[in-house]
Design a protein that fits this description.
Blueprint lengths: L1 E3 L7 E5 L6 H5 L3 H5 L3 E5 L16 H15 L4 E6 L2 H11 L4 E7 L9 H17 L4 H16 L5 H9 L3 H13 L13 E6 L7 H10 L4 E5 L5 H4 L1 H20 L5
Parallel strand pairs: 2-3, 2-4, 4-5, 5-6, 6-7
Antiparallel strand pairs: 1-3
Length: 264
């Protein structure tokens, strides 16, 4: 877990990272700017980084319950849940299952569903099937193979070694199961019931989560505001000077609107 105290009495942001990443890998470019205005808490999800390890198959609802338990342990009171990619469904589920813990939502590079078409469902369900094969392999062998593939793709650079070390901490069986869980996620039947201030940080050049889906998410949430970023799905890391100002503005906007509402 990563924690930044922020100014006294500042609202708390609960940062929920994306699929295959860790909290630090997803948010390291954002901590400093967000910490000037907010208390910041970021956790690693199950199977990711230093997150919980479980013999149970990966479920997004379990991640939401983990987030709720962390809020309870820290005693922060209601938080603004900030979800990136897979963290978006976890934030949505946290609001739905524990509305008393969520004062606002900031949803980045994410959607109501990740597999609404048959081909998409087949690909993501295939990841769940592949997870069965990895159970027969030593965990360190799988992590090392994937980290080496990352190194070969990215090449040498000031942060690549650190990033590959982050990936080596992942439980890749759980990661593959998480892909299958994303394929089953669909908040379209209930996302319109969201009753807290919300913002969508839309990555407008995204080839993994289509911008049209991100904007459809915003339209589905009453009063949600859109903060566009010219970048792809990895813009939070590759172009932080584009992403971080939009993220900060979205969080400040939601916090300001939250302050105008009655405590839930």
């Amino acid at each position: 877990m990563r924690e930044v105290d922020g100014p006294p009495g500042a609202p708390t942001l609960l940062l929920l990272h994306g699929w295959t990443a860790t909290a630090d890998l997803n948010w390291y470019t954002s901590y400093e700017s967000l910490g000037r205005a907010f208390r910041v808490v970021a956790l690693d999800h199950r199977g990711h980084g230093r997150g919980l390890r479980s013999r149970r198959p990966f479920r997004l609802t379990d991640c939401a319950e983990d987030a709720a338990a962390l809020v309870g342990v820290l005693g922060t009171g209601p938080v603004i849940a900030v979800g990136y990619s897979m963290g978006g469904p976890i934030a949505q589920l946290l609001w739905r299952r524990h509305p008393e813990l969520v004062n606002g939502l900031v949803l980045c590079a994410t959607s109501r569903t990740f597999a609404s078409r048959p081909g998409e469902r087949m690909r993501l369900r295939g990841l769940a099937a592949a997870s069965l094969a990895t159970r027969a392999l030593p965990r360190q062998f799988t992590a090392e193979a994937i980290a080496r593939a990352f190194d070969a793709r990215r090449g040498a650079g000031p942060t690549e070694g650190w990033a590959s070390d982050q990936l080596r901490r992942n439980n890749w069986t759980a990661i593959l199961e998480a892909g299958g869980s994303l394929g089953r996620f669909d908040s379209r039947p209930w996302i319109g019931e969201v009753d807290v201030p919300a913002a969508v940080v839309a990555t407008m050049n995204d080839e993994l989560v289509a911008p049209a889906r991100q904007l459809a998410l915003a339209r589905s949430i009453p009063g949600a505001r859109v903060f566009p970023v010219q970048g792809d799905h990895a813009v939070c890391v590759t172009h932080p000077k584009r992403f971080v100002p939009a993220l900060l503005e979205a969080c400040q906007d939601v916090a300001a609107r939250t302050a105008l509402t009655q405590p839930r």
